[in-house]
Write a structure and sequence with these properties.
The chain is mostly helical and about 300 residues long. It has 2 domains: about 90 residues, no CATH class; about 170 residues, hpI Integrase, Chain A (Orthogonal Bundle). Helix content is about 55%, strand content about 5%. It is built from 12 helices and 5 strands. The longest helix has 22 residues. The termini are far apart. About 20% of the residues are buried.
Length: about 300
């Protein structure tokens, strides 16, 4: 039986079998979450090929088309472009196409600066007061890990009950950090331990996923986690995101700790240049008053 092909090209026209097309990613050494992202973003490129045809400039033209779209940020455009880039690279490596469409075509250039600021201290205080009075055990436990440990959304979702070590000496949680294949031990504060113990007793959890979806049948997803956080933010009229909590966590460490190596360990940044973005932003904020003094006496 002839092997089913992901795409058939004839006179620049292209017929795509999307289910087979996704299988080209299976030979990539990527995480399950990255694979899900690629499968989500690739269909746009496949539709583009069906509409515009296939030739040696298809990838370059797709990049130009993405650039012209106004509904997406550069970050989102990059995700669409990278999913297409990896897919095309696999087609070439696996002999499905004979030309390298990626030659001399780069991805989008992105600023390393943060597009949005994290929560400020007043918002954290407002959040703390609200959770103390109205937060249920699950919500408090989630926010405890996000605020006091600076965990990323996916890291929180991936935690199992068995990953927790909760005691009076030194408590920790085993997490799989961004870009890592193995779990690492992260120390947690006593206040987080109290929140987790309250939640575990309430839910009577002994094993499996620490946080479940709303129906209680499956592990919570990053989308479900965002909804939980957004509900609280909406009530408090806080304009931010789940990642905004990590942004506050890192900024708080930078403000109060002069030891760069210690901060890297606590924030679990793999690249020091990423951490330096926080230093630069805080430095600019501190120097803004001096900057504005240069224009005193000038107004119109």
């Amino acid at each position: 039986m002839e092997e089913e092909k992901s795409l058939v090209i004839k006179d620049s026209e292209i017929i795509i079998n999307k289910e087979v097309a996704f299988k080209h990613y299976e030979l990539c050494d990527i995480s399950e979450n990255t694979l899900k992202d690629y499968r989500y973003y690739l269909p746009l490129f496949l539709k583009y090929l069906e509409r515009e045809g296939f030739n040696k400039t298809s990838y370059l033209n797709y990049k130009r088309w993405l650039k012209a779209q106004t509904q997406w940020t550069i970050s989102t455009k990059q995700k669409y472009l990278v999913s297409a880039r990896v897919w095309i690279k696999q087609l070439f490596k696996q002999g499905v196409i004979s030309i390298d469409l990626l030659e001399d075509t780069k991805t989008f250039k992105q600023s390393t600066k943060h597009k949005k600021t994290g929560l400020n201290d007043k918002e954290i205080e407002k959040l703390s007061a609200y959770l103390s009075e109205f937060g249920d055990e699950k919500t408090k436990a989630v926010f405890g890990l996000l605020i006091f440990s600076g965990l990323r959304s996916q890291e929180v979702c991936d935690i199992d009950v068995e990953d927790l070590t909760l005691n009076d000496i030194q408590s920790s949680v085993m997490i799989c950090s961004k870009g890592s294949d193995d779990k690492e031990r992260v120390l947690i504060l006593n206040k987080t331990v109290r929140l987790l113990n309250d939640y575990l007793r309430k839910q009577k959890l002994k094993s499996g996923a620490l946080f479940l979806s709303k129906n209680g049948k499956k592990r919570i997803t990053t989308r479900g986690l965002r909804r939980l956080v957004d509900r609280v933010f909406d009530k408090l009229e806080i304009t931010s995101s789940t990642h905004g909590l990590r942004h506050w966590f890192v900024s708080n460490q930078v403000k109060k700790n002069d030891n760069l190596l210690e901060i890297i360990r606590w924030t679990r940044h793999r690249n020091i240049s990423t951490l330096m973005v926080y230093y630069d932003e805080l430095s600019l904020e501190k120097s803004f008053d001096k900057f504005s003094q240069a224009f005193e006496g000038i107004s119109f």
